[in-house]
DNA sequence: TAAGTGATCTCT
DNA sequence: GAGATCACTTAA
């Protein structure tokens, strides 16, 4: 029915649940005064201090400090010198967790989507809300459970057998 | 399949 | 301060 803007309460829940439910929601970004809304089709969860694939696995640093905040914040960082990665912080305060937005409709890949939506590190530590110019909406789309595929995460071979094989990636079947 | 690219982390 | 590393993409 109506468009619902997702608030902190949505993001403060357990990371894997939030990740799964983000599939089919709309990422909305203000670009040059115009709103672009794209359905989220691919995400990855990074959950807790023991997740070896997570930036938070080696404790808090200047870069990942925002992951320790309560859910509802934006975490953006630069990878490989040229790609900004967009994450949403989840869970309660002091519990380091975030969800990497890997793809939306039309832009398949974390680096590509940030490049096209002009998302850079200036969004780091901002709240996920219209005031920041970047937020998420529930537009009433219902995604069938069978249309969501779970797979291991991408590009985390260094995390060891246990963590690299966790099925923390959610993809919308096309 | 390899290389580009630069912030950040982990040693000295 | 120096060196290694990295949640990627593109062009062969």
User: Which structural class do you get from the secondary structure elements?
Assistant: alpha+beta
Q: At the third CATH level, what is the topology name?
A: 3-methyladenine DNA Glycosylase, Chain A
Instruction: Tell me, briefly, the overall form.
Output: globular
Helices and strands, in order, run as EHHEEEEEEHEEHE
Number of domains: 1
In words, what does this structure look like?
The chain is α+β, with helices and mostly antiparallel strands and 174 residues long. The chain has a single domain, classed as Methylpurine-DNA glycosylase (MPG) (3-methyladenine DNA Glycosylase, Chain A). The protein binds a DNA duplex (12 and 12 nucleotides) through β4, β5 and α3.
Provide a quick synopsis of the model:
The protein is 14% helix and 33% strand.
Spell out the key features of this protein.
alpha+beta, 174 residues, DNA-binding, globular, ten-stranded antiparallel β-sheet, 3-methyladenine DNA Glycosylase, Chain A
Question: Topology of this protein?
Answer:
Elements: E1 4-5, H1 8-11, H2 15-22, E2 26-31, E3 34-47, E4 74-79, E5 83-89, E6 97-104, E7 107-108, H3 110-116, E8 134-138, E9 148-151, H4 160-164, E10 169-172
Antiparallel strand pairs: 1-8, 2-3, 2-8, 3-6, 3-10, 4-5, 5-6, 6-7, 9-10
The chain binds a DNA duplex (12 and 12 nucleotides) through residues 44, 46, 53-55, 58, 61-63, 77-83, 85, 87, 100, 102, 109-112, 121, 153-156, 158-159.
